Amino acid sequence: MGLAVFDIGGTSVKYAFWQEDDLIDKGSFPSPTTWVGMKQELRRVKEKYAEQYVVEGVAISSPGAVNQAARVVEGASALPYLHHFPIYDELEEMFGCKVALENDANCAALAEVWKGSAKGLDNVLMVVVGTGIGGSVIINGEVQHGAHLFGGEFGFMLLNETQTFSQLGTAVKMAQRYCERKGYPIGTVNGEEVFRLAETGDDIAAEEAEVFYQSLARGIYNLQYSYDPDLILLGGGVSNKPDILEQLEKRFELILKQVGIAPFVPKVETCYFKSEANLIGAVYNYMQQSNKIRGTENETIAK
To answer: Phi and psi (nearest 5°) for 106?
Structure first.
């Protein structure tokens, strides 16, 4: 007995079967262009698993703002057909079993709390650095979605009078600024190349790399002293940079000297899970939601 697990992305859908505390029988397919096509592919995978295993339920990591109470996916994503209709109802009717969905960034954070770098910790923030800044808020072991489902949208934070965390604290934007200052077409140089150029004496690259490091450190510092979590996890491509934690540590020390009253440096670690994080987190979300449902049923019986 186990779960069929899906990680729905803008370009592809990963899947696996969760059995005996492990992901097995993994695969993927290109993300269909229509909801009808997506349902066909999801059903195909579930039926394939049903031939070999007992499928207890389906766990899904999804883009967008997953409203678990209303049982819809709000917001927007690269797959607009996922949004603003009774998606839970359609999927549960199609699969013939319970379905649990959660936002992809929240799934990644849940994976880390359950079995990764934040295992055993109750209060954790995840900062995901990609094209922009996103993330997740975990309090008492559970995702905090927020009143408007914007929990973890740290990229909206202003770091100066006009620019946000997303505009200043990503390697993607750093590379764009470098190209603009050099007069190159945007995309000619990527973030990894800017870091390399900064280390080999390119003054503009060094300046833009410093803006990136300072901004990322400032944003994380602000989050630490706003939420005071046990740990802040760093995810996204930049978390693979070998010296990223060392670079942040240097900027934290400078911030603490400037602020004076701040008594400690934020504790930051990179994520343990990479490509399978969303699948593992989707499983944990399914377990959490199942326990809540059982708890509600027990309360009703007791009454």
So the answer is: -65, -35
| Tens-binned pLDDT, residue by residue, of the chain (303 aa) | 899 999 999 999 999 999 999 999 999 999 999 999 999 999 999 999 999 999 999 999 999 999 999 999 999 899 999 999 999 999 999 999 999 999 999 999 999 999 999 999 999 999 999 999 999 999 999 999 999 999 999 999 999 999 999 999 999 999 999 999 999 999 999 999 999 999 999 999 999 999 999 999 999 999 999 999 999 999 998 999 999 999 999 999 999 999 999 999 999 999 999 889 999 999 999 999 998 755 544 443 343
Cα separation of 165 and 160, whole Å?
9
Question: Rg of the chain's alpha carbons, rounded to an integer?
Answer: 21
Kindly state whether residue 114 falls inside one of the protein's structural domains: no
Query: Looking at this protein, which amino acid is placed at residue 92?
Result: E
- Is 98:287 a contact under the CB 8 Å cutoff? no
End-to-end CA distance of the chain: 32
- Find the CATH number of the domain harbouring 170: 3.30.420.40
Q: Is residue 113 part of a domain?
A: no
Q: How far is CA 256 from CA 167, 222, 223, 262, 300, in A?
A: 23, 12, 14, 6, 52
Q: Which domain holds residue 94?
A: 2-108+274-302
One domain for residues 286 and 261: no
Is 134 in the same domain as 86?
Answer: no
Reduce the DSSP state of residue 202 to 3 states and report it: coil
* 264 shares a domain with 125: yes
| Residue 87 shares a structural domain with residue 183 | no
Q: How many domains does the chain have?
A: 2
Residue corresponding to tokens 């930051």: 268
From CA 73, how far away is CA 101, in angstroms rounded? Answer: 9
